[in-house]
Fold each of these.
Amino acid sequence: MGREFIPEMLTISQDGYQPWTDAAAEPQIKIENIVKTFDGFNAVDNVSIDIYRGEFFSLLGGSGCGKTTLLRMLAGFLTPDSGHLSMDGLDLVPLPPYERPVNMMFQSYALFPHMTVENNIAFGLRRDGTPKDEIAERVSKVLDLVQLGEFANRKPTQLSGGQRQRVALARSLVKRPSVLLLDEPLSALDKKLREATQYELVNIQQQVGITFVMVTHDQEEAMTMSTRIAVMDKGKIVQVGAPAEIYEYPQNRFVATFIGSVNLFDGPLVENQADHAAIASDEWGGKIQVGRGIGYSLGHNTTLGVRPEKVRIAKIHDPMALANRAVGRIKDVAYLGNSLVYHVILESGKVLKVTTPNLGSTPDRKFVRDESVHVGWAPNACAVVEP
Amino acid sequence: MIKQVRFLGSPKPGEGRRWVIAGPFLWFLIFFLVPFVVVAKISLSTAAVSIPPYVPLISWNNDATMNIALHFGNYHFLLTDPEYVIAYLSSLRNAAVTALVTLLIGYPVAYGIATTRANLRGPLLMLVIMPFWTSFLIRVYAWIGILKPNGLINNFLMSTGLINHPLDILNNQFAVYVGMVYAYLPFMVLPLYSCLEKMDHSLLEAASDLGARPLRAFVSITLPLSIPGIVAGSLLVFIPAVGEYIIPTLLGGADTLTIGTVLWNEFFGNRDWPVASTVAVALIILLVGPLMLLQHFQSKDEPS
């Protein structure tokens, strides 16, 4: 079983800032029909995205999905085969990296090992010919921002992983780029530090007001930090949306299974009204009710997805007033501390994943292997997933 | 950082390591330190017509008294005779010029190999190493064929009409430099290559991202980070170049004065082993001194 998505830990800290819903807003970064091939392999395949000023935008996908290639094209380390890249109206493609108004935080941090923290951070300002006292002032300010004031004279080898990560962040922020690119900025940190740093990065981004474009393979990280996420697979954008949108309404099977965990049911559409619909699913053993109309005609083979934490589970004698109900038997129980994951075998043999919060004080809420149970969910808990 | 590797059955940590080091240590003790002590001993003697051709340091009188006679006169002689001073200085100059020129040629070569496509690096390195497969002596002789008045270069230049008389490029200092730079170039390229090849490419990307043009990035990042390679290569060239004998003899003409030729003359011409030994010991002192200083500064520089 893969890593379970734990919704309670999630706060969508970027909630409320939604420039993409404003038709009058002009995107800051325009990525249009970008194609990049390596030896005949389409690493980035006709990708178009608009990113707005002040966003924390994440490119999320597995390894080899093209997310890093896309980021490196924004930084200028790679040139697209075709398509347009522009930032604040400035055509980026012909510009070398050292002339682009963006800075990048590298996955390996790429700190200069022969320079002190201070000189690492000042490097970019010196290249711009910034006056000496202004450099000193800005370096000390950004060191305060990342809480590394007392480490100014250390070499990178004398710092811990977390401190190096902050130096890398400070170095990329000090030039006040109009866009900051982050390549897996937290992947080298251990889990505890990573979680703390997620919030810190978002705080810093909101303080400095710079657009962040982050590449990550970690869906939890993307969900926690982003205003919007672009899910990528095989060089293509699969879905772009706010974290809640992507989680609640995954457009297709890839997004539904990549972000969190999901139970999928296939079946022909048998009812379709404005306010409700239903599919007939053999795996479920009957009709599955959906709380809204579906844009397909009757008989269309439809896939429904329901998140494990939205499935209710109860003792067999418990009355459950839910439209979608079935009987099953507990096959496996996984104890995750803050939650429990049950694998319930339905009569059809289909295994349904169910997550419940660990409410230790109510013993009638605990189920053991081979116990017969009722499972069910509300009609508005499931989403239509395209194949 | 590798802490300690403990093998199964090793008595206690560190024991095995001691034995591994013992081998090379003994080797150096027997084949380097002992001969050096012998040479140092001979340098404190005086020449004599005997076999071996020097007065023994230790002699026994009839009344069982041991006499130890140490002559430091050879060292004094070395300082007072300008021939030796000139020989040392010209050897040091030859070595320094060789190290500098091999660095200037070798750095771009090593940089080029280190930054080329990965599948080309092996063959290119092979080309650097290939001359070693031919005898050193033959390669130096080949240079005579190239540089002599009716050699390759002069014949070519005459045939194109660029010159009327053959250039005088053999049996002089220039020929010595050409030969030494040629012979020692691989010793510069290899350590530089291994240093440059290890360098993290993302550092240059970071420099570029922060606004450094390629030349600036090279000066600020690549060059300082390749200093260990520059030092290693320069030492590998400089040290053997100081004592070089064959190249100055074959390419430098009759009156080339270097430590190598002086040593040869004292040993085989004058049969003055004590003076020859003194020359050798002085050379080692001359080389070891700066090396130890360098080591001292390097170890101080390393992060704690």
Note: Residues 239 and 287 of chain B are 7 Å apart (CA to CA).
Amino acid sequence: MTLTQAPSPDIPVNDKDLLVVRDLRKYYPITRGFFRKVVGNVKAVDGVNFTIPAGKTLGLVGESGCGKTTTSRLILRAFDPTDGDILFQDRKLGWVNIPQLDDVQLRQLRRNMQMIFQDPYSSLNPRMTLLDIVGEPLLVNGVAHGQELRDRVAELLKVVGLRSEYLGRYPHAFSGGQRQRIGIARALALQPQLVVCDEPVSALDVSIQAQTLNLLSDLQEQFQLTYLFVAHDLSVVEYISDRVAVMYVGKLAELADTEELYFSPLHPYTEALLSAVPKPNPRLRSKRIVLQGEVADPSNPPSGCYFHPRCRYAIDRCRIEAPALREVKPNHLVSCHRADELQLQGVPE
Amino acid sequence: MDGNANVTSTQGVPTVSDNRPDSGAPLLEVRDLKTHFPLDEGTVRAVDGVSFTIRRGHTLGIVGESGCGKSVTAQSILRIVPPPGRIVSGEIIYHRRHPTKNGHGSNGHGGEELIDLTKLDPRGREIRDIRGNEIAYIFQEPMASLSPVHTIGHQIIETIVLHQHVSREQARKRAIEVLGHVGMVKPSETIDRYAHQLSGGQRQRAVIALALSCQPSLLIADEPTTALDVTTEAQILDLMRSLQQEFGMAIQFITHNLGVIAEMADEVVVMYLGRQVEQASVDDLFFNPHHPYTRALLRSIPKLGQKTRDRLESIRGMVPDPFSVPKGCAFHTRCPMYLPGVCDDPDWLEVGPSHWVRCNRAMEPVS
């Protein structure tokens, strides 16, 4: 089978990258009346651009409804995007553009892209044993069966820190942290290149979060995994990510290397987010920026910059003209008209 | 933990509404409370000997992981422990102020009556008079604690009419007032909305309005911001603090999030498997923790601005099954300082001024 969908020749791609997302859009139409006339769009994802180099982690943060989960599902093509390119450097197939693949090609590609889910209780079938759960991807793709399958699953369980004797047990016998490990073992079964982690630790207890994050970073090293790490907890994202993208109402507000973003943010929204996180230090109380109002409605966003009604630094221009994502410093992209002049606060050192 | 020299905000034990003459007087004393759940598989000792005092106008934080008994403690206070759970021993002494003519709650200046809440019939008149009126409860999930088929206003008005002797018109006026207090935009319109028409932050504001509608002297907030986004969380925490200043109520703040505890509490109780392992002022807890569990918890959370990608220190193992709580110190199976013979029956030791620890090795240098 050959793949003809090479990326458009005018867009150069870097072979060190694994994933290139270009101008990705997903609109959900709002219909009204008997004829279901389209009267508007919910712009869930509205022109998102980023790249993830192989073996690195991109953190995607934002508040609920900002489009971070939609973006991650679009990459796995759980939904079809409205527009945009998702270029993926497959181990065997080379560069492919995910939205253009047909079902057969997708199936082959999906072996290299896996997902770890948020809720370890609802993401495991209670009627399947660990052997069935972790072995299913191997079986479905014809990788292994019989004794070999058992051996492979036992090996995978060991990799994520579970005992191989647990093969015949059901998920109910395990705690939340252990279940999340089962989910991770399932995601790793086919040795994927890209793993999309959607809030993988937010349902876990504090002491278990640390174990799981450590496991994820060990596995990344061991198997050269590339992560897209979607989360709302900024301290967790900081720990795991090389680069961080901040989303607000379907658009990227800021994209920079982790340390740069946390210590010298250039977007007022990033500044406010960092400031709002409750810090485990009672002496830092009441030094926070509390944003007024609520996240804009993506079906009826404000004019100009979507963030301007809540922004302390908004000027007239922000109300009229939507800022484009631009590179203000090397490798530091931000969509704010005033990024060059503002002196924003990062994390207090 | 240095570099705080330039911080001008509250240092040491934060002071809340000290302008009130009665601030700091005991409001609720929990003494050796035990709440157990007899199940077919065995008895779960969800709360197993917990004692603390909540003071007027102050905030007590209760922190712990799931299954540590923090919510059951709060449910025991309000006598809403779900069956088959029941309080098997202990006292919960509520210092009740007699209502004065201008209403209930902390504004009254009558004599104090001591009521042991554990002795009351959970369905009786007396506790129903206290519950939702003098002691209010905010649940974690705002959507689940509001009725989907009644308007916000209906629910607040019902609470007010039930507890205070006012007409429906007056109650409606009060409801609009209290919605305004919690920062609801256009309270006179929101009052006729249903829960599903509000955003997550607005719903939690509505729940807070409902809890505050009778001006309680104690507000129990059980993970009130866990389901919210960070910027909304910051708004709600700010709101709760300013309302506390305004009304002088005490807050029992239950959460698993140490950041939120640092933000809100005056005093903190750390729980592990149904028992208190440490109790201290918020400053002592974060800067001078003594129990190995508290220390490990503080080290294991990823902190903003850590600048390193070293491994996080994690607590080994997991919280034991509630049916087989380890003997002796419940934490000993996971404790780096465990010594056989020493840790069999840890005492509740005072290691500093109002700083208590349940660990026999608490005074030894950290290994």
Note: Chain B touches chain A through 54 residues (CB under 8 Å).
Amino acid sequence: MNGIGLRKLKSALFVGFCLLSVLLALTPVALIFFFVVRQGIQALNVDFFTQVPRPVGELGGGMANAIIGTLIMTGLGSLFAIPVGVMAAVYVSEFKGSRLGTLTRFAADTLNGVPSIVVGIFVYAIVVLPVKQFSALAGGLALGIMMIPIITRTTEELLLLVPSTMREGALALGATRARAVFTVILPAALPGIITGILLALARIAGETAPLLFTALNNQYFSTTITQPMASLPVQVFNYATSAFPDQHRQAWAGALVLVTIVFTCSVLARFATRRLERIRGF
Amino acid sequence: MEHTTIRPRSRLLSFLPADITIRWGTGIFAVLIVLIVAAMGIELTRESMLSIRKFGFDFWRTQTWDPVQGEFGALPFIWGTLYSSILALLIAGPVAMGIAVFLSELCPPRLRQPLVFMTELLAAIPSIVYGLWGMFVLVPAVRQLESLTPAWLKTMPLFTGPPFGFGMLSAALILAIMVVPFSSSVAREVLKSVPITQREGAYALGATRFEAIQAVLFYARTGVIGAIMLGFGRALGETMAVTMVIGNTPQLSLSLFAPQYTMAAVIANEFTEADSPIYLDALVEIGLVLFVITLVVNALSRMLIWSMARQKKPARVATVKAAEAAA
């Protein structure tokens, strides 16, 4: 038999291991933050937000075109993904037991696990190849495809949280099911839907792989969505892998801007859920 | 007394749903999601036909990757992907479990919320930022470490080769860092779904903390394994961060110090340079296999998590959450 002393020692060792793993996981976070903020701030200036990239070898310049590009393409992605994601979620939560509902949930989960680079190839095959033109539209579509599963699953979860009495009340007043959904249930779940959208934005704003061969890149300022377009993540990648220290500097600045965008979305998402939880009285 | 029977709607009409507008109006979008996934499989197969026909299974058995000569063997890429992901799993698995146990079993409530929030933020950092940090901070550190390796260790196959820094070790480390927050948040939700009676029972029998947690982990074993496998699926498809630190050299090597290559990385690097149809198709075929592998791994791990959800009713709500957190 194990003595009680030995058992207690084992227990203490295990607790120690758990604490250690928390520390182990938090160290890289701290290090990443430290470096991104330190290196990023050094390189960040007004030019970064207002200038386009200078030719290789010239110092200075900025990423104005890439910042605009990221905004345009995440916007295009949202335009496509929000209606699809929310509507599909309504279907899945309204017709819970249906075969299509189950299939859709499965498809959304599958889509969520598809590597982003594969989404890139897919969009290349269905958009870029036929028209023989890299474009911001293709990039936006790739980002949109990645947003859909996140929006669908969070929206679905939150639609199911809306008390059934609200739906029953609406139906008892003679509303059709469509009316109950669009005037009662969806508005009640709105903060949750916004959370889902923000989480999706946080995840795709920094995506590089699906843009590499859909939107490609662009050294110039461009807002034409049928043309190749620069984006922050792709620009950071190109600069990081280049041989010039000045471009490395700018890559860090780009990373800082990206992290700021992503964290803002995450924190806002958090606030949206908080509000929702307060309303529900959880 | 007179009996009134409520009759169901006539059978003739019952095949028409009562509210057809909403069913079809929203159903179209649901179908669209299913179609996207199906189209992905079909398109990837169609676009890689040239390579599938020409090389057949040899594509995955040979290891010469020479686009100029038109020779395409993808073995080094599949090796690099599996090796780096398994290594990452070995590092990240125990750590993720430790965090999950700490947050769900040991953590003082006041500390829990901020810690959970921090792991969530970690999961939100874009892959490219991990890659940038990996290139300029992790790789030099790993190079230092490698050059300090004692000579007797260098004779082992795991540690041969010059200390580049860029290579398997850096890739495995960066993958592990990226996977930990993801796996741990799913595992935490799984542990949360274990009924409190499981712990109380163990303590009532005189268990120490460790023994009680063992009981919890045993109850949640399928879900925890599912959570870690979900992380494995993530690691398999991770592209940018790995591309930036693994050294991008197609070779079969056991050495942690050797620069290698992964499936996702070769697609990212060479896709826009592919100048012949066969080259492009070979790259798409790698994408197709990556798609299939991640699909299988994800489906398996979701099944594990869901099978735990079915054990008990009260546990279900929380495990559904776990599946959601995985999303």
Note: The longest helix of chain A spans residues 4-43.
Amino acid sequence: MAKLKSWQELPCGAIIEDPKAVLDNKTGAWRSERPVWDREKCIQCLTCWVYCPDAAIVVQDGKMTGINYDYCKGCGICAAACPKKVQAIAMEGERK
Amino acid sequence: MILAKTGNEALAYAMKQINPDVVAAYPITPSTEIVQIFSQYVNDGLVDSEFVAVESEHSAMAACIGSAASGCRTMTATASQGLALMHEMLFIAGGLRLPIVMPIASRSISSPLNIHGDHSDSFASRDSGWLQFFCESVQEGYDTLIQAVKIAERASLPAIVAVDGFILSHCMERLEAFDDAKVRGWLGKWKPNWNLLDYRRPILVGPATMQDYYFEFKRTQIEGMNRVLPIIEEVQADFAREFGRGYGVIEEYRTEDAEAVVLLMGSACGTMREAVDALRAEGKKVGMVKLRVFRPLPHPVLKQALARFKTVAVMDRVDAVNSYGGPLFTETTSLLYDLAQRPKVLSYVYGLGGKEFTPLDAAAVLEGALAGRKDEPVTYVGVR
């Protein structure tokens, strides 16, 4: 872990000057349920990507390729947003 | 320009001249008129401000935080229950170091319901990281609100400017107002340290911090408050040069050879001047120390000022419910405790819920201070 800064080194107003720093905090451990994506059913509408309040829907070359469980908190919004006729994302209990 | 204005009218007029980018507010007695009059200025095109009529004071402060975080000069106004409803948001504005400026018409807090003036509302917000100015007159409220914008922006801290509810907010006084252009020129443009909407410099605002960084960030905020005093003194001097009226963080009234003085804030200072004059006419060595700035508490200035008196009677227009004296009293005793020779300090609580504080009441406090009486921890002035 990087050396912790002293208070004198911190920016005024507790802003984070490097927004990418949030990548260091893997917040997926909060999850009690996990979304499970079915590649076969997925129609690539990317609705889940639009609705995900984090950035846990992984998109490569314009296509949904999976879920980043390092940051997914299991809120289930992606599963709810997935079109009813498609249902490519299902929530399952998290197994620790 | 000489005008006749109530406290609320004068504060709204100052807001017109300040011409903030955004005002988000919700009405509450006795500060309603500040927002009401200002919204008329908006309607009449006399200001460039975006006015956001929100659904509660909590939302008002939330909108102000978003606005100030986007680099907009931001103001609101409230009182009493409204300030109480803003409570958690006040801490966020303080922690994010956003220079939101908020006049309040100080009022008691329920229950029992009471709409009149005391300092319960601002004192309940004491530890939220806001600067707090208390004003004696309508003129001082107007002048201080204009100063507060510059102070808040230089210090990166939000500021409350308090006038006593009804006693000042609804009382018409003579006001020497400045030109709009002169006020706007003096204030200039706010240059924020950061701006949430600046896409060239993306930042994250309002992060979560745990045991590793919360305390350290709080320490930076405390230091911000610790460093405000010279900024206030600088802005006050600059204001005096520009507009011809000087203020200090404290003001001493007839204290030259005084044995006993009263320390207090707000409109009651005017009453106390009368009482000091009356007792001085009888040859009694009494005086007044008026405190204008409660946050930051001007430690060195106040300590030095009070150290030389035999007795200091500290008057609070709020009670801290079973604390050993009113809140300003306990701060004062802490301030003086490590002096080798320290004054006797007495605690008086007065004027809750707008209870009248007359020149006779004021004289009785001065007499009590001269006698150095201290029968009980707190003397409740005028309570039957």
Note: Chain A has two helices and four strands.
